[in-house]
Amino acid sequence: MGPFVAALAIFLAGGLAALGLSARPRLAVGVATGAAVAGCALGLWPALAVLAGGQPLDLSLAWNPPLAAFHLRLDPLAATFLVPLFALGIPASLFGAWYLRPQLGRRGLGAFLCAYDLFLGTLALVFAARQAVLLLAAWEAMAITSFLLVSFDHQEQEVRRAGLVYLVASHLGAAFLFALFLLLGREAGSFDLDAMAAVRGGAVAPALAFALALVGFGVKAGLPPLHLWLPEAHPAAPSHVSALMSGVLVKAGIYGILRVVTLLPPPPVAHGVALLVVGLTGALGGITLALGQRDLKRALACSTIENVGIITAALGAALSARALGSPGIAALAALAALLHVWNHALMKGLAFLSAGAVVHATGTRDLESMGGLLARLPAVGALLLAACAALAALPPWNGFASEWLVFTALLHGAVSGPGAAGLGAALALTALALVSGLAALAFTRIAGVALLGEPRSDAARAAHAPGPAAWGPLLALAVACLALGLFPGAALRLVAPGAAQLLDLPAAEVAAAAGPAIRVGGALQRGVLAFLALGLALELWRRRRVKLLGQARAGTWGCGFTRSSPRVQYTASSYSQLLLSTLAPRLLQPRARVTPPRGIFPGPARFEQRVQDPAEERLFGPLFHAAARRFRLLRGLQSGRLNLQLLYTLVTLVALVLLLALRSAP
Amino acid sequence: MTLHALARAALQLALLVLLPPLLPGLVARVKARVAGRQGPPVWQLYADLARLCRKGEVKSLTAGAPFHLGPVVGAAGALAAGLLVPGPGSPALLSFQGDLFLLTGLLAAGRFATVLAALDTGSAFEGMGAAREVTFASLAEPALFVCLLVLSRATGELSLSGMLGPALPGAWAQWAPALLLCAVALFVVALAENSRIPVDDPTTHLELTMIHEVMVLDHSGPDLALVLYGAAVKLYVFGALLARLTLGGAGQGILSGALGLLLGLGLFAGTVGLVESSMARLRLVRVPQLLVGAGVLSLFAFVLLVR
């Protein structure tokens, strides 16, 4: 436990030192980054040790606040989520040091750096906390520090709005968590999670506790329809913060749901099915939303909703299979979900960081003003391309490995499940196949429009390649993505204890459930390696032929049109138009306003398109507006005059005293 | 490994590598005969490939490295997928539980690279073809998944070689209607995945109406050879799956298996040719309906099995 507490202390010290060094920004960035990297490296060690079969680590310290206790515990489930935090934290912090270089003279940089280090620390504390009050305190601190990080560019109105949406969503979610832990704590007579786990929820209806957790933690996880803050906050934040939010913060929501599952009685099928349905909805909705986005980072944020949906669906499948008495399938699905947590952290981290470098080089997040960037930013462009391939779940990248596991688990369910269970697994598999098909569309769109073809704007044409300080940390992430894709068996052995804890099964049995194919040297790996070898051989053959026979360069074939221009290229909007206009449900279709050219000598034409999020437009928009209208009635009470405010306080106090007096009277 | 097994593996590899270019030739021959023409020889594609391999290439000024990645990854993906397809009267060279997802993953990787190669040229037409290809593939993939699920459920096997192997005749005896529906759906998916009529017309000369062909307009020389070869291998992969499904593997002997496979591939090519001769390409907006229809058909087959 020592190294983990030391890591927390380093985060705190680094944050405070950065705040103190505000006057010397270069030093402050160095100190904050150094502390973040050192803390992550130090924290990674105990987390991996626990996963590699070590004993869970426990630490209790005296803490004064009422009901609270400082009880930390690194069990396999916590460690499974801590590993991606620390693993992604190192490259993200190094990239952040490069990303912040142009901001060195800015006011508030010290506070930002402080918030960044504290954010890492509170996030680690959320995963390790073993006491409800400590967990909630860390949870709120994490929300506030991440709010500060999101609002870094607060001079832009869009960013302020995104920060506000995020803060409101976080707090509404936290309200459900307070209710949840008050209920569980009252039953257990203590706010220690171990005590809660011992009574298994007591008299609290499991469905109620599960629903509270699903809403409260689901806000952070971005489960539909609570995902609203996600596509707002991710693009607004600086890219290394987006990477951490998307890679790890969102997973804190998943972790919370899983932790509550371990506190309750073994979940019935209905809970698993609820997770499955919510997850599939999120996956399908998220990827469809991603298809309509012009903003590069917003599209990546929507894909986070998709991936969290896949994770949630796999967890739902695991819990339902466990309840239905198929521990093998449950283990396979849980392994798939936890491995996808790792994989998604790495690949989405890579995607956000490389997208950040692209945005940095071009000065725009608009896909339609990019294009041709692979030729101008070869290193960063190739890394973004790799991230897109991984996110589209293609072999040999890591996204494919976890998706293969999810599919295989559902296949087992569909083949052996009786009646409704088999049909449900088959339907889930079909939905996930559609998701992976749409993901291919979304990521060819991002990679193709942003990186390939001709530059679509002067900014893209003039983009300069950043140095190795920017892409070095990303390269490590890309290598990790490839390694997890080629050797998923090694990672599976590490996530197996977490899955075993979740499902209450022996770890050896869970690890064996993955089957021989995915092990090192297994058939799946041989297939992927054969693919790579074939590709390499064909590429070498092609190079030799071209070297022998020569290559001529000419303009792209324009099909008879000779005055080609970058503007004739297929745009991001046109790329997804066929799917969105013919296949997407009407709620998810973009609204287009077209002014066609008219008359014999046509004047200018106009085409305008806006993507709507049905959760905002149909659900939360009307809800919040209605609430705002009601609350406006209360404005009369709040005149801003001090004596009136004091009067309210007095009246409230007297009323409370009267209430107490009346209730205690016999 | 015994000598016998080695010989089988060698035969399987040889079939996978050498046979595919025959299939488009057969399809073209059937089409020509139905139209009352002589048509090109069936080995025309072999000659085309040999000619293209001897040519230099012309590369677009806009294009970069991903332009070459398309043909290479497309062909490598199709060949690697071919390793998972059961051979004549024997299991595939590589077979494991859940190998069907590797097969779809490899085909998806090839498509991803082909699409990026098309977008790399900066051409409006190639972008259009790319968008159509991925959009239709995103619907064909679920349909393919359900087809294979039906097979899997009917035979109780989780690998392609298992579900198309010895367990298949028993499944046909018990679940003939479901497997028939599945075969029809798989055939529709095969037409879509291989850009044949009624989804796409490989012989059209109008770029606006093409899907797959328009994506490779700028490829030439060895690149184009790889594109054509990869497409032929993909056709072979689907043809071999369908041949095994409909003819039930035709025994376990190497000779009878090989004969069965050749017969099945011939029938597949003939049917594709007849479909291409007898109908026109569907309107673009109708294609999704066809693919969703195929998916629903196979889902119905699955329901028949679950009942």
Number of strands of chain B: 1
- The SSE order of chain B reads HHHEHHHHHHHHH
**Main sheet summary of chain A:** 2 strands, antiparallel
What is the helix tally of chain A? 25
The whole-number mean of residue pLDDT values of chain A reads: 93
Instruction: Please report the number of helical segments of chain B.
Output: 12
Largest interface: A-B, 87 and 87 residues
Q: Segments of chain B where pLDDT lies below 50 for 5+ residues? A: none
Q: Give the strand content of chain A.
A: under 5%
What is the alpha-carbon Rg of chain B in Å? Answer: 19 Å
Helix content of chain B: over 70%
Average pLDDT of chain B: 92
Outline of chain A: globular
User: What letter string, H or E per element, gives the SSE order of chain A?
Assistant: HHEEHHHHHHHHHHHHHHHHHHHHEHEEHH
- In total, the number of strands of chain A is 5
Shape of chain B: globular
In the sheet with the most strands of chain A, the strands line up as 1-2
N- to C-terminal distance of chain B: 43 Å
What structural category characterises the helix and strand content of chain B? mainly alpha
Q: What structural category characterises the helix and strand content of chain A?
A: mainly alpha
